[in-house]
Amino acid sequence: MESTSMNKLMVAGYMFIRRDDHPNIRIKYRKQDSGDWKTFEKFETKVARDRRIKELLDYDKIIME
Questions:
Q1: Helix/strand/coil (H, E, C) string of the chain?
Q2: pLDDT band at 3, cuts 50/70/90?
Q3: Average pLDDT value for residue range 9-26
Q4: pLDDT reading at 38 higher than 90
Q5: What is the pTM of this model?
Q6: Cα-Cα end-to-end distance for the chain
Q7: What gap in Å lies between CA 63 and CA 33, rounded to an integer?
Q8: For the CA atoms of the chain, what is the radius of gyration?
Q9: What are the boundaries of each domain within the chain?
Q10: pLDDT exceeds 90 at position 17
Q11: Structural contact between residues 40 and 15, judged by C-beta atoms closer than 8 angstroms
């Protein structure tokens, strides 16, 4: 998604998440008040991270980037 569209959705209250494996297994997020991608949560395994992502995507205002 292009940054202009992402910015419009963030202004409307949406938060974007994405997977990251380096330097550790984590979920990163971006929302209007943070601007840049930041660590949302760290995990010991990719399976645990992916399970948490599935839970987060049940929320209406969280979108996978």
A1: CCHHHHHHHHHCCCEEEEEECCCCCEEEEECCCCCCCEEEEECCCHHHHHHHHHHHCCCCCEEEC
A2: confident
A3: 95
A4: yes
A5: 0.88
A6: 7
A7: 16
A8: 12
A9: 3-59
A10: yes
A11: no
Residue type, 25: I
For the chain, the average pLDDT equals 94
Would you state the pLDDT for residue 62?
Answer: 97
Q: Are 28 and 40 in contact (CB under 8 A)?
A: yes
Spatial separation of the C-alpha atoms in residues 26 and 43, rounded to whole Å: 6
Give which of 49, 56, 16 is closest to 34, Cα–Cα: 16
- Determine the pLDDT at residue 13: 94
Question: Both tokens of residue 33?
Answer: 């008040």
Q: Which two tokens stand for residue 59?
A: 């929320």
| Nearest-angstrom CA–CA distance, 63 and 65 | 6
